[in-house]
Amino acid sequence: MKWYSLPVVTAASLAAGMALAADLPNKKAAVVPAPPPAWLDTLTIDGYVEGGIAINFNQPYNKLNWGHLYTDRANWPTFNGAVLTVQRPIDPKATSYDFGFKVQAQIGEDMRYNHTIGTTDYWIHDRTQFGFLEANVQAHLPWTSYISQGGVDVKAGIFPTYNGAEVMYAKDNLFYSHSYIFNFGPFLHTGLMTTTHVRDWLDVYAGVTTGVNTFIGWPGDNNNSPSFHGGFGLNLLDGNLTILGIVHHGPENPVQRGNPAIAFAPLPGMTPLTWPNTPIACVCDPNTANRTYTNLTTTWKVTENLTLITDMAYNRESGWNPISTVTGIPQNLYGSFDTLAAGVNPAWPGLAALPQKPQGAESYAIAQYASYKVNDLLKINGRIEYYRDNKNFFVAGFPGYFDAANFLHGYPCYSCQFGPANVGTSYLALTLGATITPELPKLPIITGLILRPEFRWDTSVNGTQPFFRGQNTGNGIARSSSQGMFNMDVIIPFSLL
Fold first, then answer.
1. 205, 211, 244, 387: most buried, per Cβ within 10 A?
2. Domain-by-domain residue ranges, the chain?
3. DSSP letter at 496?
4. What is the 3-state secondary structure (H, E, C) of 37-62?
5. Sorting pLDDT into bands at 50, 70 and 90, what band is 22?
6. DSSP label at 342?
7. What is the average pLDDT across 179-203?
């Protein structure tokens, strides 16, 4: 090519480029997909601070709201907790491997009930305690097949139970106070959970845990047996109707372990029980007596503003029988009672030869929720619940700092409150409340404000008197067949990243 031909070539190239540029408006520009976000770009750090008050019109003499846990303190402000969540969530629809984690810590009075025993349960000697609601690693595995068209998700570590409509993370609930189904069902598990995305409309859950609110090894697991946790989830009507059926099944009664020199006498004059004896209420092998929690939860988004939730539960404990229906004496104490009675009357025939077997205990319940969004400021919520505790086994009160942890460990729990043994109670609870989210001026870190006032009325519909009221000078401890309350909490969400 000669040098004098370069201007000709340059001119021709310039003309071609101008013609192409003139023609571009008539052609669609090629769409270049955005690159996926970097792994750390989806990391979030957020949480909330919550406090409230539960005003009990019965004015209970012991300041205990029967049937409540997080709202168990009557007529006194409660610092429910501050929660901080650090997480990198996985994408369950990813077409490649994806990995994440979640760490969620809480400090507050609610933490008394949220411990996985053997971790932080005795760190702080106060109503305000510290612990972890979640600490797990997660993975999405794109293992597709006929039975896993969407792949498989795996979670390992400490995670909340899959049972029920209500959750431990306060800002995701409709009410400040909780249902009986929530309060006396499982909270946390340590173990492994898999979610198989069989179809777009069907998920199958299967996992193994150490039990309810337990960690690993001594003293984290109160017995030596694993539990099953699993079920199914249906996603119908383009996500407007979901049905979740979940069961947790396995041994939950504690084997008392530890220092053999520690002993306690359950009744005056009786031979003290020492480790490794099992608790008085379990006439069983704690590693084979099973407790089953079953929930069927249906959520139907009827319209853009109206949502209905139905939560049904059935629970059973197979190893429980604290009081013999024949003798009226705890079966675990037959031998001790014989020793005491024989010292008074050498001709005492003895109870230990009588058949000793657990009766078991059951509860079954249904709770119906309705939530209507009036506008961005106001949501009206209602809940009606029926809960039958056929032996007064599941519903209990834990007013002491460490009552819930002691009970899970199998340690003595002298301040724990229980209903009369072998006498069931049928509870009816009506709750009407609101979720108010006022618009705030733009603030650093704080992302909103949530107010949840509610009126709640609980009653026994079978003639029992489980609720506390003001001291009665006639008979000392006073009980009532019903309980009226006004409750309200304030939640301040925040975001750090």
1. 211
2. 43-253+289-321+357-495
3. -
4. CCHHHHCEEEEEEEEEEEEECCCCCC
5. very low
6. H
7. 97
Kindly provide the residue ranges of all beta strands, DSSP E only, lying in 290-436, ordered along the sequence.
290-301, 306-317, 361-373, 378-389, 396-397, 417-418, 425-436
Per-residue DSSP letter, 272: P
Return the percent helix, strand and coil in the chain, to nearest 5.
Answer: 15, 40, 45
| Low-confidence winner among 53-57, 129-133, 296-300, 410-414 (lowest mean pLDDT) | 410-414
Please determine, for residue 282, whether its predicted confidence score (pLDDT) is greater than 60: yes
Neighbour-count burial for 452-477, b at 16+ CB within 10 Å, e otherwise: bbbebebbbeeebbbbbbeeeeeeee
Contact indicator for 332, 282 with CB cutoff of 8 Å: yes
Task: Give residues with Cβ within 8 angstroms of 410, minimum separation 6.
Answer: 222, 253, 254, 255, 256, 278, 279
Number of CB atoms found within 10 A of residue 344's CB: 8
Residues of the chain with pLDDT > 90: what percent? 65
Per the confidence metrics, is the pTM higher than 0.90? Answer: no
**105-119: string of b/e by CB count within 10 Å (b at 16+)?**
bbbbbbbbbbbbbbb
What letter does residue 376 receive in the DSSP assignment? S
DSSP string, 173-212: SS-SS--HHHHTS--EEEEEEEEEEEETTEEEEEEEES-S
- The per-residue DSSP string of 253-266 comes to SPPP-S-TT-EE-S
Six token digits for residue 133: 């609601």
Q: What is the per-residue pLDDT for 335? A: 72
Residue 110 DSSP class? G
Beta strands in 64-181 (DSSP E): 78-88, 98-108, 129-141, 152-160
- Return the CATH superfamily for domain 43-253+289-321+357-495: Porin (2.40.160.10)
Distance CA 135, CA 166 (A): 20
Nearest to 484 by CA among 430, 446, 433: 430
**Which residue type is seen at 278?**
T
State how far the Cα of 440 lies from the Cα of 76, in Å rounded to an integer.
28
The whole-number average pLDDT for the span 401-418 is 87
